[in-house]
Amino acid sequence: MGVKMHPLEVKTINALKKGAKTIEEISKLANLNEDQVRKALFWLKTKEIVKENKIKKYLIKLSEFGKKYLKEDLPEIKVLKLNGKPLREFGEEEKVGFGFAKKLGWITVENGKLKVLKKPKEYGLQKLIKDLEKEKIVNDLDSFLKKYNLNKKKIKERARLFEIEEKFEYSYELIKKVDVKEGEGIGALTPEIISSGEWKGKKFRKFDIHSPSPKIYPGKKQFYRYFLDWVKRELISMGFQEMRGPLIETNFVNCDALFMPQDHPSREIHDIYFIKEPKYGDLKEFEKYVEKVKESHEKYWKYKFDLNLTKRLILRSQVTALSARWLMGKVEIPGKYFAIGRVFRPDVVDWKHLTEFNQIEGIVLDENINLRNLLGMLKMFAEKIAGAKKVRFDSGYFPFTEPSVEMSVYIEGKGWTEVGGAGIFRPEMTKALGIDVPVIAWGLGIDRLFMIKYGLKDIRYLFSQDLNWLRDAKCLP
Amino acid sequence: MPTIEISLEDLENLIGEKLDEKKLEELVFYIKGEIEEIEGDKLILELKDTNRPELWSVEGISIFLRRILGKDKGIPQIKLKKSNLKVFVEEVKARPYIACGIVRNVDIGDETLRQLMQFQEKIHQTFGRNRKKVAIGIHELDKIKFPIYYREELPDEIQFVPLNENKVMNGWEILETEKGKKYGDLIKSFEKWPVIRDSENKVLSFPPIINSEITGHVKPGKKDLFIDVTGTDFEAVNQALSILLLILQERGGKPETCEVIYKDKKLHTPQINIVELKVDWNQILKWIGLNLDKNQIKELLEKMGYEVKGEKVRFPSWRRDILGWVDIAEDLAIAYNYNNIEPEEPKVYFKGGLSKIEEFSDKIRNICVGLGGQEIMTFILTNPEIFEKAGLTWEREVENPMSKNYSILRNTLIPSFLDFLSKNTKARYPQILFEDGEVIGKKTERRLIFGIASQDSSFSKIKSYLEALMKELGKEFKLREIRENPFIEGRVGEIIIGKKRVGVIGEIHPKFLENFGIKMPVALFEIVEDELL
């Protein structure tokens, strides 16, 4: 029964029938380039017409060091000319030669001097070196070496002279009897065929539309950034304006302006990375707020505010720092602002923790905003961003909010999970920053939320350095 | 945020009610707690509020939960009597303040002792700033001859048998012990060290290091206890003592004050009084968004340990977490329970939008995807090794890294890019990759790196990509020859717009490719997005 085949397949099968076994041989016999042969063999393998055999072969060649002995004798041969020489006068190479020659039983020592016992007529190792002026590929290393009176063990002892690599050679054979008939008609359509009109009156050969095609990788966004982009668009559609700021902040913006006392356990709610050099920054941008913040700290926390410590430079440890930065003169009232940014905290990196991660924060300022609105806002985020139907509010504690709220959500199939903290900024804090209306603030652990939603078990995947994994990762939602 | 372990049975006895897991989960809401684990009788709780030390003990928790359950209401009172036992205080430079109290007839069982030790530990750690601000010593009263003296002495003069030891040690020797090594820094730099002695001159305590074996070894049984609290902050010291007495009162003890006589004043400690705060109920109700009448407010706040008289809210002075009316507002909302409040979305109209740089980088990223690039994301805090491998230097680093892998701040995206390529030498080529990210040089900058690792990667090829990107952005640029790592000399240029350098483009030199184990030619460009805005 004639099977309609691609011309490449036909030529390949014919070459195999004529006795070609390797890609190289098929290519020569069929007058095709190696890529074409590979393609054809791939199709034929899939159709189970051709079988691929993998043979291990050995490439043996001289190392750079070994090549030296193409022109010279090996040290153990050289040492045979030193009969009678005192051992203590031996140089480096002579000592090496002595060692090998002694093992071979060619020499011994008498009265501290070399004594030659026998001189070999032929030395397999030296012959092997000569024969390897050009590298060789052999099927069976053992039988090849046997010809030189050597074996794998002996070669290992002189490993410095040689380089041996395992190579796989592929050979192919027909396993099904096929009667080939090259399909009639036009194969690949080319611009020449179109312009010349050659196609008129001719049929087009049938292609196997099911045969696999080469894989291509599209340009693609990083899968987690894709999600963060989506979150940003959701927030913008709710009327939030993005806040941005520097990664290196002063203690003033990151902690003190947020009413976190300088010497208080709450400061150790998380640790902070300090910048080595320079150690201190300037507060020119926030000059008019520093005094008020100092006063507020001293009045309510009852300690002496350290004006030096407040200038210490650190890596931003919470995105709430951006809220503080913006509250100091950059916001409108009423206003809705959000930020998604990188923050840094000293921590050991493992499946649950990163030392550099993302946080999302939002604030709403308005004369009439209250706790009820905050809960409403949180519930809306739970639905829109976490896709959660059920939420639970817990009491919490943050030094800069009162009341403080923690939210947990119920995600189908995943159970309850904590997603974030929120609250109304304390007036002691906002007044010092020049804000006279209530400000509700919320922050979601966006990394964890994403992981739970999409079933990632290791947080390090978010920053995956595995290109194959990234290429295959789905961009959601 | 301390975590404590308590016995469920103990808690149930103190509260006077049996509690199942469901009930416990409901109740912890009112004390800002979170259940970490329940196993049989063992309950492990995290207490979130760092300003409510009274809640770090099972006794304190039961005082407040009894009120939530309606078994009690109003201000938790400490029924203090004056003991008239005196404590004379001289100048102690290392830790000037002391407050002392007595509790008579406490039933010290194993569980009570365990909870007492745990409470002390938690106070010392966070609240007491590792014993600097506050350190507590508990003693058997009958072993002490009053009056007692708090003073500072030369290290050699301080000689006694410390708790759990069996020989006399002096100040220096004690500093070599485990506790001495841990807390010695608090007093080492001073010439004289703190000590509490009684009238028989025996040492009660060597604060903040350790108590004496004679007085400080509290054995189980019905006891009269003496408590000393020393530290660098009188308010905190006083608060710690007040709470300890509150706790021991829960265990059946009768608290008494001591008279502490400083050079310039004398007072009976602990100093506890009722604070009265005047509030505006409308302001509070507006803050939390609830409509409650006076009776409802009164009832709810009494559940949280307050007393309400018209516009005045009354609470004990050891509630130092209460700074103003917002704290009352929170406790009112907690008593009502957040989950009973009907959420209402805020009706604030505001125009949403991205920042300029974010919009711009979105545009750039879309073009890069259109050019066939796979986006990658790497860390800003990184390893100096990758910079060294690329022949580049960085500008900023952190003083307290946890590991070398995350110790410097990148000022260019190039090393992370090459590092990424080095980890993917087995993935299919061509690899067309890009990253849009922040770097820290003189200031925070937003940069784009776009590179190709492939058999045919070359300067000419990557230049085509740069031109395509710039055309889409509508930017005209020039190239200017330069010599720079990690590029091949003669195949690298600065990207110039106007007169400013905005980036660099070139082929990577194989000596750097080798450092990274990359066997494919790589060409790339990096541009500073802020300069293009």
Number of helix segments of chain A?
A: 18
Structural class of chain B: alpha+beta
Most extensive interface: pair and counts?
A-B, 89 and 84 residues
DSSP strand count of chain A:
16
Mean pLDDT of chain B: 95
Shape of chain B: elongated
Report helical residue fraction of chain B.
25-40%
User: Count of helical segments of chain B?
Assistant: 18
- Rounded to the nearest angstrom, the distance between the terminal CA atoms of chain B is 45 Å
Query: What proportion strand of chain B?
Result: 25-35%
Q: Profile the largest sheet of chain A.
A: 7 strands, mixed
Q: What kind of oligomer do you see? A: heterodimer
Rg of chain A, please? 39 Å
First CA to last CA of chain A: what distance? 51 Å
From the structure above, extract its key features:
heterodimer, A: 477 residues, alpha+beta, seven-stranded mixed sheet, three-stranded antiparallel sheet, 18 helices, 16 strands, B: 533 residues, ten-stranded mixed sheet
